């Protein structure tokens, strides 16, 4: 006879229900009296409200409820299906089934505990605190926290489909690799073409620099060897602190050669050009009468481009910077000759004229107005540049002189430059002004001799007055264009005034810019009747007037 296990379990249900109600003991009776009283007060309230009638009524109601419940149980028992004797089992079978159920419960408990430990150990690998809180003490004692990890494993797919997909992926990777390789080769080819073009531009610029006879050298700048070009005047005899060495660099974008100044400066140096202005001074009124044209000098750099033009432009502005530096340096020593110097301006006072030498930014250069002394201003600025060239040449010639032998007794003279820039302008200007004053003195004497007849005076001076300028230059030095500058100016005026011949030799000094006049008077026989040296034009005039009046008694 086959017995259904579910029905078999149901057959023991009444027994379980009956046994579950056995041995119910009242726990309230086991409580101590204080706790029991506290519980009664909590449930029933205070004993003041309890009376005998209320207790009896409550007991009757409780009894009535028990009778009602027993009647309902009897009705339920009657309504329950009746069981046959075969459906009942022995008590041993009941205990056996009960033990199986308990074992199953324990087995399920163990498995759930093992699953919980397994999950906790997995979690402890990621979150140690959360995993260890739900882990059993036995597992904590024997296994380290975080020693078990997990990873997602996809279930195996169909082999043929997997192989087909793998082959498709492999072909795709291969095609992608080929396309990437083609792209890389193409980009590499383009990059190589660009690099070749850049190198071609760079070396073309370098060849252009070499063809322009520029001096190319190499220097270590900031521990890096750089290709440099010398654009300064150091090899030409310049002693300026800026030697004029620039770096030739390659443009990273186009590869073109460009020029960069390598002089370490604290602040960016601004290019400036020397400009000359002339003012007419009438008392306290000053009027602009001339200005040099520097726009024409800058026009050359505006039309050209390239590294050659940049080098030439740097050389030009370096020369202008050195020129103004030398002018400032000399002007500081010429305060006694009416020369004032400021940071960017030099003013030379020439009695009735002012010469102003300034530095102008190229952006501020404009064409000068049409003034009467523009040509003189241009000549002065050309003269200043030529004088600086002459000083460079003088320094270069001085370097060619062989050194003296090392002798303790022989001492070489200090090597100082004999050339100057501003002083010759002052000396020659004063010399010409003094020469004109001496001529006016001679003219006034002849005019008084002819009783203020200007026509006869003019004819006599044109016929008998001879002026020999710069007569102290030797024939060998006259071939040198700078001989007049290195030699003090001297001029001779010779006038025939019957019965005397007046000869005045005017010599100017570089140190003081003053002139010394040597007056010589000769008679018709050619003998010298008076030879005197004077320092002032008024003295010369008084002496001549006295000599002409008293020539018979001399």
From TrEMBL:
<dbReference type="InterPro" id="IPR019313">
    <property type="entry name" value="Mediator_Med17"/>
</dbReference>
<keyword id="KW-0539">Nucleus</keyword>
<feature type="region of interest" description="Disordered">
    <location>
        <begin position="61"/>
        <end position="80"/>
    </location>
</feature>
<comment type="similarity">
    <text>Belongs to the Mediator complex subunit 17 family.</text>
</comment>
<dbReference type="Pfam" id="PF10156">
    <property type="entry name" value="Med17"/>
</dbReference>
<comment type="function">
    <text>Component of the Mediator complex, a coactivator involved in the regulated transcription of nearly all RNA polymerase II-dependent genes. Mediator functions as a bridge to convey information from gene-specific regulatory proteins to the basal RNA polymerase II transcription machinery. Mediator is recruited to promoters by direct interactions with regulatory proteins and serves as a scaffold for the assembly of a functional preinitiation complex with RNA polymerase II and the general transcription factors.</text>
</comment>
<keyword id="KW-0010">Activator</keyword>
<feature type="compositionally biased region" description="Acidic residues">
    <location>
        <begin position="70"/>
        <end position="79"/>
    </location>
</feature>
<protein>
    <recommendedName>
        <fullName>Mediator of RNA polymerase II transcription subunit 17</fullName>
    </recommendedName>
</protein>
<keyword id="KW-0805">Transcription regulation</keyword>
<comment type="subunit">
    <text>Component of the Mediator complex.</text>
</comment>
<keyword id="KW-0804">Transcription</keyword>
């Amino acid at each position: 006879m086959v017995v259904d296990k579910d029905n078999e379990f149901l057959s023991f249900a009444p027994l379980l229900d009956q046994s579950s109600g056995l041995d119910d003991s009242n726990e309230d009776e086991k409580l101590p009296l204080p706790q029991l009283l506290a519980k009664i007060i909590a449930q029933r309230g205070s004993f003041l409200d309890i009376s005998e009638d209320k207790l009896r009524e409550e007991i009757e109601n409780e009894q009535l409820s028990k009778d009602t419940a027993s009647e309902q149980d009897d009705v339920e028992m009657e309504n329950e299906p009746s069981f046959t004797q075969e459906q009942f089992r022995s008590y041993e079978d009941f205990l056996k089934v009960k033990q199986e159920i308990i074992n199953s419960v324990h087995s399920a408990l163990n498995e759930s505990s093992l699953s919980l430990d397994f999950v906790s150990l997995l979690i402890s690998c990621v979150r140690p605190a959360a995993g260890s809180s739900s882990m059993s003490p036995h597992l904590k004692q024997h296994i380290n926290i975080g020693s078990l990890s997990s990873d997602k494993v996809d279930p195996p797919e169909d082999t043929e489909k997997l192989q087909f997909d793998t082959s498709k992926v492999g072909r795709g990777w291969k095609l992608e690799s080929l396309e990437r390789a083609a792209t890389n080769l193409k980009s590499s080819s383009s990059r190589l073409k660009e690099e070749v073009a850049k190198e071609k531009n760079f070396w073309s610029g370098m060849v252009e620099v070499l063809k322009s006879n520029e001096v190319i050298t190499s220097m270590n700048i900031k521990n890096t060897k750089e290709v440099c070009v010398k654009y300064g005047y150091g090899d030409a005899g310049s002693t300026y602190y800026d030697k004029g060495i620039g770096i030739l660099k390659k443009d990273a974008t186009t590869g073109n050669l460009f020029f960069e100044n390598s002089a370490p400066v604290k602040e960016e140096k601004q290019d400036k050009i020397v400009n000359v202005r002339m003012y007419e001074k009438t008392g306290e009124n000053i009027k602009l009468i001339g200005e040099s044209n520097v726009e024409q000098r800058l026009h050359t750099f505006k039309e050209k481009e390239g590294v050659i033009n940049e080098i030439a432009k740097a050389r030009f502005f370096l020369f202008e910077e050195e020129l103004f530096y030398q002018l400032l340096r000399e002007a500081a020593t010429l305060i006694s000759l009416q020369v004032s110097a400021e940071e960017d301006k030099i003013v030379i006072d020439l009695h009735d004229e002012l010469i102003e030498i300034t530095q102008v930014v190229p952006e501020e250069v404009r064409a000068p107005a049409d003034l009467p002394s523009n040509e003189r201003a241009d000549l002065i600025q050309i003269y200043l540049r030529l004088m600086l060239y002459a000083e460079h040449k003088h320094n270069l010639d001085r370097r060619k002189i062989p050194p003296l032998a090392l002798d303790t007794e022989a001492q070489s003279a200090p090597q100082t430059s004999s050339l100057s820039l501003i002083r010759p302008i002052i000396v020659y200007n004063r010399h010409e002004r003094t020469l004109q004053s001496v001529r006016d003195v001679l003219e006034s004497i002849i005019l008084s001799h002819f009783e203020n007849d200007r026509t006869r005076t003019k004819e006599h001076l044109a016929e008998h007055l001879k002026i020999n300028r710069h007569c102290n230059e030797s024939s060998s030095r006259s071939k040198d264009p700078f001989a007049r500058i290195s030699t003090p100016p001297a001029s001779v005026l010779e006038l025939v005034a019957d019965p005397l011949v007046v000869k005045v030799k005017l010599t100017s000094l570089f140190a003081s810019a003053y002139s010394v006049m040597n007056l010589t008077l000769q008679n018709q026989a050619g003998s010298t009747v008076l030879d005197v040296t004077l320092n002032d034009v008024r003295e010369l005039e008084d002496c001549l007037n006295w000599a002409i009046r008293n020539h018979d008694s001399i």
